[in-house]
Design a protein that fits this description.
- With 191 residues, the protein is of the alpha+beta class.
- It has a single domain (2-174), classed as Beta Complex (Metal Binding Protein, Guanine Nucleotide Exchange Factor, Chain A).
- 26% of the residues lie in helices and 22% in strands.
- The strands form two sheets. It has a five-stranded antiparallel β-sheet with strand order 4-8-7-6-5, with no helix packed on it. Strands 1-9-2-3 form a four-stranded mixed β-sheet, with no helix packed on it.
- The N and C termini lie far apart (50 Å).
């Protein structure tokens, strides 16, 4: 039992250090909002690291491609709480992920949804990192890390589950937004 407590404390300490380091970058990040929805990918989206780095911000790359976690209660989260009706898409590939109809305030410091808009666009995977047992949420189209799914927490929602999602992985489009052209990588050397 003592070993488990030590492992959990070490994992939490490491997460706090990583979160602290990321806070400076996260202050500069804001959840992107646009007038139009991204073109929905119809197949798997595969890019090289260089291509991902060309289209994502450094914080989006760290979270989506390296399974990072943004700091809790960041500017991105505050913006999420103020957003009205609309749809949330993957910032990496444009796949539709969540609806404002399913969002709720779990007071955890990250965007929370009780369901995915289109469940075929998310993959759930066992995650045993940091000495914990969790369910990782990935974008089914680009395999980007979005966050985690927690069940049985007792929230007063239609489903007893919480998709705890990193805000920098989401692109919000208000209701009535139009679909633009798909985002392409920047030319080599330009960013």
């Amino acid at each position: 039992m003592k070993k488990l407590v030590i492992v959990v404390l070490c994992a939490v300490g490491g997460l706090l250090i990583a979160t602290s380091i990321a806070q400076e970058n996260a202050k500069k990040e804001v959840m992107k909002t646009q007038e139009t929805a991204p073109a929905a990918p119809t197949a798997k989206v595969e890019k090289t690291d260089a291509e991902w780095k060309a289209i994502l911000t450094p914080e989006q790359y760290r979270v989506l491609r390296q399974a990072g976690t943004e700091p809790a209660h960041s500017a991105v989260y505050k913006q999420f709480k103020e957003q009205g009706g609309g749809t949330y898409f993957c910032a990496g590939c444009g796949a539709e992920l969540f609806s404002s109809k399913h969002k709720f305030d779990s007071h955890c410091g990250w965007p929370s949804f009780y369901d995915a808009t289109d469940n075929k666009n998310v993959i759930l995977k066992d995650d045993v990192s940091f000495g914990m047992i969790r369910t990782e949420v990935l974008c089914a189209k680009c395999n980007g890390h979005l966050g985690h799914l927690f069940k049985g927490e007792g929230f007063d929602t239609p489903k007893d589950q919480r998709y705890c999602i990193n805000g920098v992985t989401l692109l919000f489009v208000p209701e009535g937004g139009k679909t633009p052209e798909a985002k392409a990588p920047a030319e080599e050397g330009k960013q």
